[in-house]
Amino acid sequence: MSGTTPATGAISFLDLQTIFGGTNPISFSEYYADNGLTTGVEGIPNTGISISMSQMRGKTKTLIKIQVSVSDGGSAHTVFLDKNGNVYSWGSNFYAELGIGNRKNQVSPVSVDSLSNIVQISCGLYYTVFLDKNGNVYSCGYNQFGELGIGNTEQKESPVSVDSLSNIVQIFCGSYHTVFVDKNGNVYSCGFNILGQLGNGTAGWTTQEESPVSVVF
Q: How far apart are alpha carbons 45 and 8 in whole angstroms?
């Protein structure tokens, strides 16, 4: 599937959920595409996203669920999740943030073939985190501050499992830190912590966490 686009054929009903820089979903839209619709996302204000809708013609009521995560803070990659749990990525890949097993920039969506059954995606600064339907977490890309949560600071060209976590239901990326919530409402974090962004009662240059730690409430 490498290099293929995620949507083909006549599509006229879109259920769009957007996530930016690891924040909560901020916009939700359901609408019927008209024959004249070719670009843009109606009903989603101030997103800065332009998604090609060239295939969205005709009157079929095909339901498409899309999740898009866009990196911020100076990074330049995009990750796309379709309704079947397949992941596609494109843009900057200098730190392997696309998760495709190499560091080549991509100008078109490329399938992240090592992943399946994904239900949530989140982009940080030069890295990406993924959550599957079983509550397992995967991450790839930049890892200087331990933001991948894998117990070291090695960059990863393909998504690797965050083995210390299970039963996760939400993932959120900051610039260089990551937050996870499990099914019981417990919160964990890892990565950069100079200003105390991990919420574990510490702060400073030497307080980064390479594995998820509990957030102290």
A: 25
Residue whose C-alpha is closest to residue 172's, from 201, 199, 153:
199
What CA–CA distance (Å, rounded) separates 134 from 131?
8
Residue type at 159 in one-letter notation: P
For residue 111 the two structure tokens come to: 């399938």
pLDDT tens per residue, range 29-83: 322 233 233 333 333 333 333 333 333 333 233 334 557 766 655 568 999 998 8
User: Which CATH number does the domain housing residue 65 bear?
Assistant: 2.130.10.30
Amino acid identity of residue 77, one-letter, is H
DSSP code string of 155-205:
-EEEEEE-TT--SEEEEEE-SSEEEEEETTS-EEEEE--TTSTT-SS--ST
Note the pLDDT of residue 76: 87
Q: What would the two tokens of residue 167 be?
A: 């039963």
Give the strand order in the sheet containing 156-161.
118-123, 127-132, 137-141, 156-161
d(CA 86, CA 6): 8
Ranges of beta strands (E only) in 36-176 are 63-70, 77-81, 87-91, 106-111, 118-123, 127-132, 137-141, 156-161, 168-173
Is 121 inside any structural domain?
yes
Q: What share of the chain is helix, strand, coil (3-state, %, to 5)?
A: 0, 40, 60
Task: Name 163's Cβ contacts closer than 8 Å, sequence gap at least 6.
Answer: 150
CA distance 127 to 19: 15
Number of domains in the chain: 1
Residue pair 212/146 in contact by the 8 Å Cβ criterion: no
